[in-house]
Design goal:
Blueprint (H helix, E strand, L loop, with lengths): L6 E10 L2 E6 L10 E2 L2 E3 L6 H13 L2 E14 L3 E12 L9 E5 L1 H6 L10 H10 L1
Parallel strand pairs: 1-6
Antiparallel strand pairs: 1-2, 1-4, 2-3, 2-7, 5-6
The protein binds cytidine-5'-monophosphate.
Cofactor: Mg(2+)
Keywords: DNA damage, DNA repair, DNA replication, Hydrolase, Magnesium, Metal-binding, Mutator protein
GO molecular function: hydrolase activity
């Protein structure tokens, strides 16, 4: 593997009717029960948009349109970087296929949610986006 390549984990800010979709992690134990923006690792040869669309089909059973970036880059261990993208739903109803639950939150519920630590970096941007919508 090319150790110089920055592997990306892409996460989706899926927004519909002024609410954001949160997904509840099943593991690892220290994150189980906490809420995150769904997503996952981009595979070699995929663009971030292709990889995120694939992850959202696998995790939520939905077809999506991937938009622009939101929030800062969050450094992860092992030379990976976590990035969030604005996403809209094209088809399907989000279903927790790999999470324990999903829920839609407006800005006040988002601010009070038990988010995974990495995703807290985006909280102010997400709240501002929801309030602007
Ligand atoms: O979901 P998965 O385990 O494939 O994600 C890869 C890495 O990215 C993990 O370390 C996970 O905790 C992190 N991640 C995150 N916030 C997200 C999605 C993934 O911190 N919204």
């Amino acid at each position: 593997m090319d150790t110089k390549a920055l592997r990306e984990v892409a996460a989706a800010a899926i927004i519909s009717d002024g609410r954001l979709l949160l997904a509840q992690r099943v593991g690892p134990p220290e994150l189980a029960g906490m809420w995150e923006l769904p997503g996952g690792k981009i595979e070699p040869g995929e663009t971030p948009a292709q990889g995120l669309r694939r992850e959202l089909r696998e995790e939520l059973g939905v077809d999506t349109v991937i938009g622009g970036r939101i929030g800062v880059d969050v450094p992860l261990p092992d030379g990976m970087v976590l990035r969030a993208y604005r996403v809209s739903l094209r088809d399907g109803t989000p279903t927790a296929l790999e999470h324990s639950a999903v829920r839609w939150v407006a800005a006040p519920e988002l601010a009070a949610a038990d988010l995974v630590p990495n995703d807290r970096a985006w909280l102010a941007d997400l709240v501002a986006t929801l309030n602007a919508g």
